[in-house]
């Protein structure tokens, strides 16, 4: 079986001229054997199946055209040998009739073989495509499982922090270890604070998970980055005002934002909005007094940059900040998905 497979592989790799030459050699051998058999036995043995061998060979390994030509040659060779070695025909048209019948038989076989070869080739291609698709899905499933495990690990870690004080102080109250009204209030405030932190963690995680799912689908349309930027900034405005942070866009303060030119291009509006929210949100976390935004577009590219006057990210982490789930040690609370989401969005837009 292995030898048979090796022979097929060997023939499939050979050029058509080589295969046609093999077919001719096979036909010559069959013709010689047929002639010798006809001389010795006067045509008592049937020989039709042997002529199918070169026809089958070239029809399968070369093409239908070669099969048709070999069918014609085989029919002529067969009739020539019959004419040279057989008895005289009772009618002069009988040889032509025999040749026509044999040719028709050979042509039918050649056409069927060629058609089977085409169907087999298509099936092989479909099987290979299916195999590749299954392998691709297995890799995607494996990557999904790895990401899921990482996400759950981060989620469990983030939920444990605020949940432990809630459980600890609640148990103290239930066990009656806190007696005075003042201590009870302190414990209740701690529980409330931890519960609020837990709720914030859930909100952040939910937001980041929604972003992650959105990255899997890319739906480009017409998007105006200026309008998206201004809508995001206005949503963050109460927090900006509370922290005393000013946003400067293209060297313009809030009063001049209406003069900013539109920046319209083909993009996924939702992914773009998420990108701006992540970058502005990060800047607000660490800025002292000022956040600067640069937004420019020309015929060949678009530049969107955000900077703040905060402490910045240590240089040793610059290569890691866009990795999924990575957080700079000592940074403010998050899941490590935000900047990864920014990177994927930029890549989705060929940036």
What does this structure look like?
This protein is mainly alpha-helical and about 350 residues long. The chain folds into two domains: about 1-140, no CATH class; about 220-350, Heat Shock Protein 90. The chain has nine helices and five strands, in the order ααααααβαββαββα. It has helices spanning about 1-15, 15-40, 50-60, 65-85, 95-175, 180-215, 225-245, 270-285, 340-350; strands at about 220-225, 245-250, 265, 290-295, 300-310. Helix 2 (about 15-40) runs parallel beside helix 4 and helix 6 runs parallel beside helix 9 (about 340-350). The protein is elongated. The two termini are about 55 Å apart.
Order of helices and strands: HHHHHHEHEEHEEH
Tally of helical segments:
9
Shape: elongated
Low-confidence parts lasting 5 or more residues at pLDDT below 50?
none
Brief write-up:
This protein is 68% helix and 8% strand. The chain has 351 residues and is mainly α.
Which features does this protein show?
Heat Shock Protein 90, single chain, mainly alpha, 351 residues, 68% helix, elongated, three-stranded mixed beta sheet, two-stranded antiparallel ribbon, 8% strand, 2 domains
Topology:
Layout: H1 2-13, H2 16-41, H3 48-61, H4 64-85, H5 94-174, H6 181-215, E1 221-224, H7 225-243, E2 246-249, E3 264-267, H8 269-286, E4 290-297, E5 302-308, H9 338-348
Parallel strand pairs: 2-4
Antiparallel strand pairs: 1-3, 4-5
Helix pairs in contact: 2-3, 2-4, 3-4, 3-5, 4-5, 5-6, 6-9, 7-8, 8-9
């Amino acid at each position: 079986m292995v030898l048979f497979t090796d022979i097929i592989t060997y023939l499939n790799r050979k050029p058509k001229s080589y295969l046609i030459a093999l077919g001719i050699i096979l036909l010559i051998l069959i013709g010689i054997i047929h002639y010798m058999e006809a001389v010795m036995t006067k045509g008592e043995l049937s020989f039709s199946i042997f002529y199918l061998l070169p026809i089958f060979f070239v029809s399968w390994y070369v093409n239908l055209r070669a099969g048709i030509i070999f069918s014609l040659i085989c029919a002529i060779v067969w009739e020539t040998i019959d004419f040279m070695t057989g008895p005289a025909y009772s009618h002069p048209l009988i040889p032509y009739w025999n040749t026509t019948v044999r040719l028709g038989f050979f042509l039918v076989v050649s056409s069927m073989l060629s058609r089977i070869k085409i169907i087999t080739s298509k099936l092989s291609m479909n099987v290979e495509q299916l195999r590749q698709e299954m392998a691709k899905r297995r890799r995607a499933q494996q990557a999904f499982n790895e990401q899921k495990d990482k996400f759950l690990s981060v989620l469990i870690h983030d939920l444990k922090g605020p949940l432990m004080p809630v459980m600890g102080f609640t148990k103290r109250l239930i066990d009656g270890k806190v007696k005075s009204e003042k201590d009870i209030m302190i414990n209740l405030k701690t529980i409330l604070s931890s519960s609020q932190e837990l709720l914030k963690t859930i909100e952040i995680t939910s937001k980041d998970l929604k972003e992650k799912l959105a990255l899997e689908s890319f739906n480009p349309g017409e998007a105006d980055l200026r309008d998206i930027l201004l809508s995001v900034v206005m949503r963050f405005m109460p927090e900006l005002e509370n922290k005393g942070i000013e946003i400067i866009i293209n060297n313009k303060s809030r009063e001049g934002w209406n003069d900013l030119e539109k920046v319209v291009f083909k993009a996924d509006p939702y992914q773009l909005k998420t990108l701006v929210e992540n970058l502005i949100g990060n800047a607000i976390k660490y800025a002292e007094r000022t956040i600067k935004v640069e937004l420019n577009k020309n015929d060949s590219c678009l530049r969107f940059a955000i900077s703040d006057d905060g402490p910045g990210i240590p240089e040793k982490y610059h290569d890691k900040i866009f990795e999924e789930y990575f957080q700079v040690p000592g940074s403010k609370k998050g899941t490590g998905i935000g900047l990864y989401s920014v990177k994927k969005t930029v890549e989705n837009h060929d940036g």
